[in-house]
Write a structure and sequence with these properties.
With about 475 residues, the chain is mainly β. About 5% of the residues lie in helices and about 30% in strands. The protein is built from two helices and 27 strands. The protein has a four-stranded antiparallel β-sheet with strand order 4-5-6-7, with no helix packed on it. It has a four-stranded antiparallel β-sheet with strand order 8-9-10-11, with no helix packed on it. The termini are close together.
Length: about 475
Amino acid sequence: MRRWGAATLVAASMTLGALLPVSPASAVHGGVPGDFNGDGYKDAVLPAPGANVSGKEGAGAVVVLYGSRSGLSAGNRRTITQNTPGVPGTAEKWDAFGAATATADLNRDGYADLLVGTPDEDTSYAADAGTVTVLWGSKSGLTSGTDLPSPDRYSHRYGQDIAALSLGGGGRTRVSVAGHFGSVHFTGPFTRGGAFGGVTLDMNTGSVGSVALGDFDRDSWPTPAVVSLRDGDLTGGRVYTTLAAGKELRGNGLIAASGDLNGDGFTDLVAGDPDEPEKAGVDGQPGGRVLVWYGSAAGISADTAPVEITQDTVGVPGASEKDDAFGGALAVADLNRDGLADIVVGSPYEDLAKNRAGQVTVIPGRASGALGTGSYSFSQDTAGVPGAGETDDFFGTTVAVGDVNKDGRPELFVGASGENNSTGAVWVFPGGSTRPTATGSKLFTAASVGLTQQSNTMLGGDGLLWLI
């Protein structure tokens, strides 16, 4: 896997910009379902940042599959692009609309809203400056949008990752945005007209590749966590919950997510570190790893020691093997409904019957004891899963969780950006009595949701594959 420092990566993306659109950066996290039309069912978000729009290659699109009592259907969908009426901007070549998405009820009107990053959008100030658009939920679904502008008008790839969390009104609703220049943090109240309470530009933590929000100290206020792009010889980048140089946490990664894993009321931070280390045990682990920092009354600080999980951890299926990219995708959510958040980990480079077919592992949260016990995995080789694992499918490129049929059993969403000549695909694993199950799982391909180009649609997003 490539190992570029953050500064090198920024310089390369500026210098080699003409080459990057061949594989545009895509959704770092999987699209999280939200009830955009207020009918009581969460709606699935399938980003397609490589989709061609009106002849514009890689302009990007987002496909919304509406939830219902019977689940999801490819026929019950809406495709949104920058050419959709009410959406700011215009679809242009290699914009990558949908490269990042996040879901939250920003204006607290009872309808979920969808934030969409377009990091390769050219602005009047710079090429690939990037934009972030809020698509506002309503009784009619996502019908209008406004932009959340970066306070740095010379930003680069603003919107390459987004996090949103609402713990209450005003400043208790927040949005964090990653970019090559740093990160931007918005506070509420947010309005459909595009207003917000405040905004902070933070350039103290280097080029930011991933963002997360959580109540790490249980004060009922969202706190941002950011992860830089690769830094020198480290696997992954530096991880911060205090946004200041020199305040990085112990350990590193490329992607972050948050949730309460042990049920103590404090949000915990999880980072995926899929890189191969130069020296195992000193920095990173062969095959990749996941790190967990537990929240506390003091929050998460540089002194907080992380817990490390690999495929060699007791109870975790498989084995750590070189270039598995364990930690290459990440989500945190309660899949077994025990009140504890679980960790969903993608290993998109996992070799199975075919090279880099990919795999997803779920690590249940635990009130006590070591994480790993009770873990399980899915791949295209799992009985009942539609399709078949093929070389470079990258199953597990992105992962997400949400209950789309209101049965109280959340579904697991898994993307594979390499499927079908990189047109991509998303699998939906229905919630079972104790966990998601392969039985009854559904496969949505790009063609099945009306995206008919022959390559590089990347339905479900390209996750970290542009980077690892």
